Amino acid sequence: MEQSILIQDQYIKEYRIKVGTIVRESREKKGYSMDHLAKLMNLNSSTISKIENGRFAYNIDVLARLSWILNCDLELLTDNI
Residues near 22 by Cβ (< 8 Å), separated by ≥ 6? Predict the structure, then answer.
């Protein structure tokens, strides 16, 4: 059981990093700074940094807003990790 939890934790970590990379690339493509995106999202710029670096446990609302503002697809279900 403990090994299963470790595998799940690793999967979640890798998924957050993947989403963070998509957010960073999409933000840069739009020409937005982290501060600008934070203002659009009504978040702190340190939260944007944490998202981009895979260190933030975001919820579906944050993902949906990021996807809308950055006009990018943040796949929720994928087998390409």
Answer: 72, 74
For the chain, where are the alpha helices, taking DSSP H only? Answer: 2-30, 34-41, 45-52, 60-70
Give me the residue label for tokens 């501060």: 35
Q: 10 Å Cβ neighbour count for 22? A: 18
pLDDT digits (tens, 9 = 90+) for 42-51: 999 999 999 9
Contact of 81 with 15, CB cutoff 8 Å: yes
The rounded distance, in Å, linking the Cα atoms of 18 and 36 is 22
Q: C-alpha distances in angstroms, 29 versus 23, 26, 61?
A: 10, 5, 22
**Residue 3, amino acid:** Q
pTM confidence score: 0.84
